[in-house]
Design goal:
The chain has three helices and 13 strands, in the order H-E-E-H-E-E-E-E-E-E-H-E-E-E-E-E. It is of the alpha+beta class. The chain has a six-stranded mixed beta sheet with strand order 3-6-8-9-10-11. The chain has a five-stranded mixed beta sheet with strand order 2-1-5-4-7, sandwiched between helices. A two-stranded antiparallel ribbon has the order 12-13. The longest helix has 17 residues. It is globular, with a radius of gyration of 16 Å.
Length: about 190
């Protein structure tokens, strides 16, 4: 297991964020020196997530488990992010606690929020490769687009696949399948 040494500033932000009591349905993330609070998802968001999760579940390795809204922590880079869906080792339950070391995640999946798209499209594209998350799938129901980021290195994703709702997304190992997106729904205009 990886041992984390939490930088003092991040430890202070984390302690403060964990002491907050957000309204029901809200979640908290940390990126650098920012604490980000976001409202809960819509039913369209939840349906799209279900469509994606069912396909990933059918192709997940037996040593990975799905987890929605799990705190992925990278104290060494000052990040605490909470993807809509991630797959983490089943053995992570032995660690206990609320935070999962981010580098243990096999993928992070986000359904873009209409109220704060920059968080998913800019902030997490910046943060997830720093957190050493190997795959980042972004589904944007605002315009019906999909982007799969992969091959993190030197703090950026070196490979990017882009398409639209209806396209098949080539998801690499450890899942190794084509994600069908014909049933995804766009947000109303």
């Amino acid at each position: 297991m990886t041992e984390f040494r939490v930088p003092e500033r991040h430890a202070q932000l984390l302690a403060y964020a964990q002491g907050l009591t957000p309204p029901s349905g809200w979640k908290i993330e940390i990126s650098g020196d920012e604490i980000i609070m976001m409202a809960g998802p819509s039913v369209i968001h939840q349906r799209n997530l279900l469509i994606v999760r069912e396909q990933f579940d059918a192709h997940r390795p037996s040593d990975l488990m799905p987890s929605e809204n799990t705190d992925l922590a990278s104290p060494n880079v000052g990040k605490l992010r909470n993807p809509d869906l991630t797959y983490i080792p089943v053995s992570v339950v032995e660690l206990g606690g609320n935070d999962v070391p981010a580098e243990l995640a096999a993928i992070a999946v986000e359904i873009v929020s209409p109220s704060n798209p920059e968080n998913d499209l800019v902030g997490k594209v910046r943060d997830y490769p720093l957190m050493r998350i190997p795959l980042y799938l972004v589904i944007d129901p605002r315009d019906g687009t999909l982007t799969l980021h992969s091959e993190p290195g030197n703090g950026v994703y070196r490979r990017r696949w882009s398409g639209g709702f209806g396209d098949r997304v080539p998801v690499p190992e450890p899942f190794a399948f084509e994600l069908t997106t014909t049933e995804l729904i766009r947000y109303p205009r």
